[in-house]
């Protein structure tokens, strides 16, 4: 079973297109979450609550978690994608919102959720060119340089 197979069929092509765009521009995307069961959402929620109360280090669950029963992940309508270098997440988020999607923004920069457009149409014909801001925000991406030493996210294993 592929990483996208458990997503809602109306959303699946959009998720693939987003990750494909990130790959084409050297952002080294890594999908970290797609559809989640209620049990997984409860476990993530509990872990995040332990982080927020100081019982666990921040690095064990650095991103927000929606309360069980409220997450788009439980419906197969969201993906979490880590990209590099620093600044690329904002560029990808701008593209996603331009396509009508819901991006988690600075508070949850790896979260890409379905918007109404993703539920009513396919991504065929959406602009897939790199936004001009790539050159401004993530120069290494625009120049296709190696980004191995540029990551400062402390989340992935790229170091």
Question: How is this structure best described in words?
Answer:
There is one protein chain. With 159 residues, this protein is an alpha+beta fold. It has a domain at 9-36 and 71-143. The protein contains six helices and four strands. A four-stranded antiparallel sheet has the order 1-2-4-3, with helices on one face. The longest helix has 16 residues, at 9-24. The protein starts with 8 loop residues before the first helix and ends in a 16-residue tail after the last helix. The model is unreliable at 129-137 and 139-159 (pLDDT under 50).
How would you briefly describe this protein structure?
With 159 residues, the protein is α+β, with helices and mostly antiparallel strands. The chain contains six helices and four strands. Strand 3 and strand 4 form a beta hairpin.
Mean pLDDT: 82
Kindly report the spatial arrangement of strands forming the biggest sheet: 1-2-4-3
Radius of gyration: 16 Å
Uncertain segments: 129-137, 139-159
Report the helical percentage. Answer: 25-40%
Q: Compute the number of strand runs.
A: 4
Tell me the quaternary state. single chain
Q: Sheet with the most strands?
A: 4 strands, antiparallel
Order of helices and strands: HEHEHEEHHH
From the spread of the alpha carbons, the general shape counts as globular
Q: Count of DSSP helices? A: 6
Classify the beta-strand content into a percent band. 5-15%
Distance between the termini: 29 Å
Category from helices, strands and their pairing = alpha+beta
């Amino acid at each position: 079973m592929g990483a996208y197979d458990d997503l809602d069929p109306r959303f699946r092509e959009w998720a693939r297109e987003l990750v494909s765009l990130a790959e084409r521009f050297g952002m080294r995307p890594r999908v970290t979450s797609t559809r989640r069961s209620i049990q997984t959402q409860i476990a993530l929620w509990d872990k995040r609550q332990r982080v927020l109360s100081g019982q666990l280090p921040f690095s064990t669950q650095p991103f927000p978690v929606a309360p069980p029963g409220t997450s788009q992940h439980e419906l197969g309508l969201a993906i979490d994608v880590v990209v590099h270098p620093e600044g690329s997440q904002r560029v990808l988020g701008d593209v996603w919102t331009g396509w009508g999607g819901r991006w988690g923004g600075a508070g949850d920069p790896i979260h890409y959720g379905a918007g109404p457009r993703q539920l009513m149409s396919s991504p065929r014909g959406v602009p897939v060119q790199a936004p001009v801001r790539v050159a401004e925000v993530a120069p290494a991406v625009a120049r296709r340089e190696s980004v191995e030493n540029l990551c400062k996210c402390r989340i992935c294993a790229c170091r």
